[in-house]
Amino acid sequence: MKMKGQLPCRMPTVKTPRQKYIAKRRNDKITVILWRIGVLVALIGIWELAAQLEWIDSFITSCPSRIVKTLSGMEAADLFKHIGYTLLECIVGFIVASLIGISIAVLLWRFAKLRRIAEPYIVVLNALPKIALGPIIIIWVGAGAQAIIVMTVLICIIVTVISVLNGFMAVDDGKIFLMQSMGASRFQILTKLILPANVPALVNMLKINVGLAWVGTIMGEYLVSTAGLGYLIIYGSQVFKMDLVMASTVILCLLATAMYLGVAGIERLTKKRYRID
């Protein structure tokens, strides 16, 4: 019999194996994030400490405090103009290369004879150093943002075609034969089987293209540009302003990280949509 004023006795909550597994995964994810942040902070601290103690020559290697001073000394409008140019060129090149590459992969999957004819050319184009085409691109499309975008597309598109096509060809033939026996058209097989089965491959392709797009954009700005972060890096190296070079590089890292996180967000949405583990 419960005495008056006595608090009710609560039974301890027992977690189910599933709850324990979910909690463990969540704790592991938090641990990894904290370690990432800790390693980054440690590297920045060691870099700054080495510069302050003159273990390294900060004029050549720069340091976090000098980078912050350089960025704060630049006019905001001028800085955002350079960031905007580079970001726009990269995003446009990334989107165009991804769309065209996926379209070509679909055509090569659909027409087997065309795939066999194009295969050696794809291999050669993939091995070709794209920087060698820089002067030709400038002559073809002009010395402007369009040349930088074309350079970005050329660097991304072949890898896109190869990775997406390999994913298409890896789909189980038995499933394709089953749909064909049920009267499905090639378009239905593509939209109902091939593309849904390759959602993880498509997301991985986007992740790869994030890095390649930034490489192509900066490479293009090295060749021809009057604005952009690549232009600042070239200008800074020519006049030996290494603080400007490092500051531009840090901004590039931040922009690339933000773009990668955007693709990672798409990956999380697709996992929920298609129940991918």
Q: What does this protein look like?
A:
The protein is an all-alpha fold. It is 81% helix and 0% strand. It contains 12 helices and no strands. It has helices spanning 17-52, 58-61, 64-73, 76-110, 112-127, 134-141, 145-169, 173-181, 186-197, 199-223, 229-238, 242-274.
Task: List its traits.
277 residues; mainly alpha; flat
Order of helices and strands: HHHHHHHHHHHH
The oligomeric status of these chains comes to single chain
| Outline type | flat
Mean pLDDT comes to 84
Count helical runs: 12
Low-confidence spans? none
Q: Which class of secondary structure composition applies to the elements?
A: mainly alpha
Helix content: over 70%
- The total count of strands amounts to 0
- Gyration radius from CA atoms, angstroms: 26 Å
N-C termini distance = 51 Å
The biggest sheet, with number of strands, parallel, antiparallel or mixed sense and barrel status, is: none
Q: Name the beta content range.
A: under 5%
Secondary-structure blueprint:
Layout: H1 17-52, H2 58-61, H3 64-73, H4 76-110, H5 112-127, H6 134-141, H7 145-169, H8 173-181, H9 186-197, H10 199-223, H11 229-238, H12 242-274
Helix pairs in contact: 3-12, 4-5, 4-7, 4-10, 4-11, 6-7, 7-10, 10-11, 10-12, 11-12
Brief overview, please?
The protein has 277 residues and is mostly helical.
